[in-house]
Write a structure and sequence with these properties.
Radius of gyration: 21 Å
Number of strands: 0
Distance between the termini: 36 Å
């Protein structure tokens, strides 16, 4: 493959990611087809589209609007087009763009690792949703990835404008994750405290707007406190991914621990946010809802980029001495 022209390699990569996205979209659709009965009976997402849905999903309106738009367009062609077909189309495009972005964010890694990461994500994605169908999860991850990818292109005022637009968009997807990204970006790429404070303010201001002005009638359908359910271990044991993660942890514990010890000194904010988020999920979510942790993937990729740059810097310094 080394002797092949770049254009051929690019076309092969694009085709590979298109096929991988088709697999992901179809696998997720088949896996959660039973959930459609609930949607047909209760109209959970249909009520969100009408502005009368339940919280907190009602507040995560941006990715759902994309699904609504695709469904409306499909019904112009075929009036009986089901809701899940629109979700498949959105997941296909989101999956393809994600694979392309991840391939670029991991440009410092060997090519086989970049392809392997995307294959692993495509195969394991449905298990991150094992606790329930969430058709907006992949779109949320795409917005997170776009924020990190586009933010690297610019510097100064333009970078801040891009980051602000990204945080605003993310706030209409998940305000808690938007706040985490705002804090991470503030301590990673920004040095001005007024800019940091303003960036972190956006998620809270938009959540206030969504909750008290736009969707004032939305009520929460989840239990307010979940800590005792989580501590029982019942939910962790129910998700097959928990056993796979335990096996991987057993196999790679030494490497993982070494990586954490080295990287935590370079970017402690990543681990502060991750641990804080796990504690938040412990109290108000379910620990086995692994889709909740997917948005940390682009943050880890930026951390891994920094570690790679530092390693290269040390190697160049040692060679020059």
């Amino acid at each position: 493959m080394k002797d092949q022209p770049n254009s051929l390699l690019d076309r092969r990569r694009l085709l590979f990611h298109l096929l991988l996205a088709a697999f992901l979209a179809n696998a997720a659709n088949k896996f959660f087809i039973i959930e459609l009965d609930y949607e047909l009976t209760h109209g959970f997402y249909e009520r969100i589209f009408q502005g009368t849905g339940d919280a907190p999903d009602q507040y995560r309106i941006l990715p759902l609007l994309a699904i609504k738009g695709v469904r409306t367009a499909m019904r112009w062609i075929q009036p009986s087009a089901p809701f899940n077909h629109a979700v498949m189309v959105v997941n296909f495009f989101c999956g393809f763009l994600l694979f392309e972005i991840f391939f670029r964010l991991l440009s410092h890694r060997p090519q086989r690792e970049r392809y392997g990461f995307n294959i692993g994500l495509a195969v394991l994605y449905i298990y991150t949703l094992y606790t329930g169908w969430r058709p907006d999860s992949l779109a949320l991850l795409l917005v997170c990835s776009l924020v990190m990818w586009l933010g690297q292109w610019f510097r100064g005022a333009r970078q801040y404008a891009v980051l602000t637009l990204g945080i605003v968009a993310l706030s209409f997807c998940r305000s808690d994750m938007a706040a985490i990204y705002a804090v991470f970006l503030s301590f990673t790429w920004l040095s001005s405290w007024p800019q940091r404070i303003l960036l972190v303010t956006w998620p809270f201001a938009i959540q206030f707007f969504l909750q008290f002005y736009l969707f004032v009638d939305a009520t929460y359908y989840t239990k307010p406190i979940m800590i005792w359910d989580n501590l029982s271990g019942y939910y962790l044991a129910r998700n097959p991914a928990s056993w796979l993660l335990a096996a991987l942890l057993l196999l790679y514990f030494e490497k993982l621990w070494s990586y954490i010890r080295h990287s935590i000194r370079q970017m402690p904010i990543f681990y502060v946010l991750l641990v804080g988020y796990v504690f938040l999920v412990l109290f108000v979510g379910r620990l086995n809802e692994y889709r909740l942790y997917l948005p940390f993937i682009p943050l880890w990729m930026v951390l891994d980029q920094k570690l790679h740059s530092l390693r290269n810097h040390h190697l160049n310094t040692n060679q020059s001495q």
